[in-house]
Amino acid sequence: MKTWKRIILAGTFLPLMAAHAADTPSQTPHQLTPNDAKNAALAEKTQRVTISEVKHQADGTSVQIQGQLEKKQGEDVYLLRDDSGQIDAVIPAAVFNNATVAPGDNVTVQGAIDKKQTPPRLRVSHFEKR
Q1: Within 10 Å of residue 103's Cβ, how many Cβ atoms?
Q2: Domain 47-129 sits in which CATH superfamily?
Q3: Strand locations in the chain (E)
Q4: d(CA 86, CA 103)
Q5: Whether this model's pTM surpasses 0.70
Q6: Beta-ladder partners of 86
């Protein structure tokens, strides 16, 4: 008889405990994915600069710029402007991540300075519309 009571009690309380566990947030710490680690490493190496400061940075330097998209100048080339000047920014369609953009949109971009081009360009790897 004791065995049946245990089975009945277990059958009653186990589903209740499982339901409670599903409603309770997990206490497991967030596991970093390779993309999280890559983005964190990129953010540490990235300097926030103005467009005029880009002229004084070395080729390949990772930078972050806040500005406005002025116009599309080519397939992946956009004119980016801030209060200090303007620069051509190469922004591949994949970087936009389906965001729609229009002239005058405020954006934050991260990328690398390409001084092999004349004038220098910004090769954008991360785009965020503000």
Answers
A1: 11
A2: Bacterial OB-fold (2.40.50.200)
A3: 47-48, 62-72, 77-82, 85-90, 106-114, 121-129
A4: 14
A5: no
A6: 81
Residues in contact with 97: Cβ distance below 8 Å, sequence separation at least 6, in sequence order:
127
State the Cα angle at 123 between 121 and 125, rounded to 5°: 155
Largest interatomic CA distance in the chain: 89
Contact in structure between 112 and 70 (CB atoms under 8 Å): no
Q: 55 with 49: CB under 8 angstroms?
A: no
- Per residue in 91-127, pLDDT (tens digit) is 999 998 888 888 999 999 999 999 998 999 999 999 9
Strands 62-72 and 106-114: antiparallel
